[in-house]
Fold:
Amino acid sequence: MRIVDQLPYVTKEENHVTIPMPDGVQLSARIWRPTSSDHEPVPAVLEYIPYRKRDLTSVRDAISHPYMAGHGYACVRVDLRGTGDSEGVLRDEYLEQEQRDAEEVLAWLADQPWCDGSTGMIGISWGGFAALQVAARRPPSLRAVVIASFTDDRYADDMHYMGGAMLSDNLAEAGTMFAYATCPPDPAVVGGRWREMWHERLENTRPWVLEWLRHQHRDSYWRHASVCEDYGALRCPVLASSGWADGYSNAVTRLLANVDVPRKGLIGPWSHKLPHLGEPGPAIGYLQEVVRWWDHWLKGVDNGVMDGPMLQTWMQESVPPSTAYEERPGRWVGEPSWPSPHVQEVVHPLRDRHIVRPADPEGRSAGPARTDAGEGRVLTLRSPLSVGQFAGKWASYNAPPDLPYDQREEDGGSLVFDTEVLTERVEILGSPSVELEVSASEPAAQIAVRLSDVAPDGSATRVTYGVLDLAHRNGDPEPVEPGHRYRATVHLNGVAQAFPPGHRIRLSLSTSYWPLVWPTPRPVLLSVYEDGCALTLPVRPTQEPDEMPGSPFGAPEGTAPARVTRLTEPEQRWDVTRDLVGYRSQLEIVKDQGMTRFEDPGIEVGRRAYERYASVAEDFSSVSGESTWTMRFRRDDWDVKVITRTVLTCDEEEFHVDATLDGYEGERRVFSRTWNESVPRDTTPPGDPGP
Structure:
């Protein structure tokens, strides 16, 4: 990334500004703005997240916010209520209180003498969610938003549930926020009140996974703040981005298709990272695009920002399977709208364990097709629990190795359909889907579907995947009668991928995908009726124009990152083990970032996350997950540590949560609490009580 130190505006920074809420709580803000805004007001841009502006996000904040401020904006980073140096308690994600607070912050910003009354919101992940959700509430000053790695559907397209099946990231993210919500404020900012504020957080925080487990179906809890419930509520322009290696690869195109506002979409090869810091590369000059967006929508500059394709995306080339990539080869392609007129839905019947390639509309062959397929058969499948150990994370958080590895071992416990060897290049852009006709031996059944690129040497790189709880085959849950035949469609995550000649396309079905997806209460024998099965691919014909010759983006640039000193070395570990005596399989993940000193506030921070997912043989009641976090903060004689641990187990009827929260000053434990609670599996609370 190119560091820019000469910008159009000279800026100044305010490290701690308090913003009052109607109930008396004070939120803490960090502000960068042009010095000239004292007498020449400028638009304000808000980022609103719970991840501690003074230290944990300070490095990336220093790259982007002073950069935007240097182009004529007042950039404001606010810690959510109950996080960082803000007062109060953070009790859950995206609550009504959080959004009301955001509206109050925007009103406060618009009323400042250095603001011209116009505001925007920007953010990635939680910040992207917040900006989109608040925009749908239409605060009067908000003119535009810039969002990355977000979703408009909190239930069906977030880390909680997929196709009605619970993801293990439901536990992992709850464990993360259990730790972040209980960290102390900085005494250098809030003074002697830090201990009182910290203990208020410790005493009023519960493991969020308990609430998330109580809402196993789409209800008012998830409908709240899901913009997909009313796309018409969104009335301001949106610049939306994500990455194909991220868990949020679907929301950009869904938003483009459903909202009726000025909008642009951008999807690169990235993991859960901002595009100017994007990994796998190539990263792009994203901040330049953001400034152009703000210039047009907040300042009224006629700069052609809406010219060109509605969607710009990275068409990925074939790569060998790997748990991490520095770069993904490919090219930028542009689509004039979404759904794109360039993309054709091509239906491939599944016959005789093959993906049959249909004829094109003129009757010409689209490639070698099997002539001996005959009538479809009934195939049966009961996958071992080991299928899924090489699935990687639901979203790649750029903590290698968290991408899926070679799928051949996974395919050994799956039902596999292959194309013949491709004689022509095939490119897909969008969300593949699989139409299935199936019956299940149990009333609770799930189907995991993977699409892979199979190289001539047999190695299989997963391209995309999807999961369906069969009870959710029509959306809202319906009973599954064992032995009864059902039609069901499994939607796979969106992707842009090229399959070269000489390769094959593989479709793999499994009845478990652990630990990415929490298994059903009992093993399931699935019968698949081939006559009713087909794979639909969103094919982008290779002769279609890319509309984006060359590279449409400049090189990444930003202002200098915050100064940090590494005190201890980080550790990244991802171990899959199998005990062939006791038949215990286990995945252990360690993400230890070591101790780092943030030089400007002079605070030393340590973060260590440990996850463990285990099972024994084919005992579906033996599965367990653990998320343990250690967060440490110290400066001089101030030394505070938070340790959280959440263990999730189950039997056929219930989930069991055992959690602990411990707070330390030095080596002395000053707070401790334990939870031991159970939640019935697959329940719909009477009357849908909602939040």
In short: Confidence is low (pLDDT under 50) at residues 359-374, 684-691. Residues 564-680 form one domain.
